[in-house]
Amino acid sequence: MSAEGQTTSEYIQHHLTNLHAGEGFWSFHLDTLLVSLVMGLIVFGTMWLAARKATAGVPGRMQNFVEMVVDMVHSQVKDTFHGDSKLIAPLALTIFVWIFALNALDVVPVDLLPLVASWFGVHHLKVVATTDLNATFAMSISVFLLIYFYSFKIKGFKGFSKEILFSPFGKNPVLIPVNILFRVVEDIAKPISLALRLFGNMYAGEMVFILIALLPWYLQWTLGAPWAIFHLLIITLQAFVFMMLTVVYLSMAHESH
After folding, report:
1. Which of 11, 25, 35, 89 is 20 to 30 A from 160, alpha carbon to alpha carbon?
2. Region of residue 55 (phi > 0: left; psi between -120 and 50: alpha; otherwise: beta)
3. Burial of residue 195, with CB atoms counted within 10 A of its CB: 0-12 exposed, 13-18 middle, 19 or more buried
4. To the nearest 10°, the Cα dihedral for 195, 201, 206, 209?
């Protein structure tokens, strides 16, 4: 239910406002940073404990679950990545489980954690970090930098320069500006598409939950539960898509023509 004394628009705006420090471009979204850090510690701490307690005998439920996730990611990387790097599989696993954990907070009742935060004097708390463009662009830009790092490492400056100047239309000097233009557009599109796809899907899901929270309690349960179950598919799919596109882009960076 909406908070007492708030209009519908004020309630929606309240849930979409980040806890921040500073103003303008140089402001920091403290809730995004805090939630990302806490979820990272919880998820990877749990996986670390599962690895510490792993046994060659009959595995427990936690070990089974972690092994299932690791095997799934390893299988996808093995089928998609055509280079030779020990970083790619751990990176893909990190991306998948971290984004999934951040997305999963979207199924927590929208008023619960902000209400708890208000008890400690925090008046704004945007819980789902992946509905913050700052977070999704930070992830996508990190992938973009890795693409360039591996492109230089695998192909060298000369090979990478040739790829930019002479692909896709060959070595005709007249077409070099066109080749460069195509490459610039392609490279800009990669981080933008990664960031906006994740942000757009999660932001839309969060908006639906907020609108459901404005309904009478009996409609909240009627509509909220089915949407939460369906949304579990969305949050898993978005984590998987971000992971797979990262692996594909890094595989392309490892290819030498």
Report:
1. 89
2. beta
3. buried
4. -170
* pLDDT, tens digit, 9 for 90 and up, residues 133-188: 999 999 999 999 999 998 888 888 888 888 888 877 777 787 888 888 988 999 99
Residue 17 reports pLDDT greater than 90: no
What SS3 state is found at 171?
Answer: coil
Residue 69 lies in a domain: yes
Query: Quick one: how far is CA 223 from the chain centroid?
Result: 26
Instruction: Please name the amino acid found at residue 158.
Output: K
Q: Name the E strands within the chain.
A: 20-21, 28-29
| Residue 170 DSSP one-character state | -
Q: How confident is the model at residue 23 (pLDDT cuts 50, 70, 90)?
A: confident
Q: What percent of the chain has pLDDT over 70?
A: 97
Q: Is residue 5 very low, low, confident or very high in pLDDT (cuts 50, 70, 90)? A: low
Cα 145 from Cα 151, distance rounded (Å)? 10
Q: How far is CA 78 from CA 71, 119, 243, in A?
A: 10, 48, 13
Question: For residue 14, what are the contacts with CB-CB under 8 A and spacing of at least 6?
Answer: 3, 6, 114, 124
* Domain count within the chain: 1
Q: Which helix (H) or strand (E) holds 20?
A: strand 20-21
Which amino acids are annotated catalytic?
A: 193, 197, 201
State the average pLDDT over residues 52-78. 85
Q: Quick check: is 141 in a domain?
A: yes
At residue 255, the 3 state secondary structure works out as: coil
Task: Note whether residue 3 is domain-resident.
Answer: no
**What SS3 class is residue 21?**
strand
Q: What is the DSSP letter of 175?
A: G
| Structural domain that includes position 102 | 8-254
Taking the model in full, what pTM does it have? 0.89
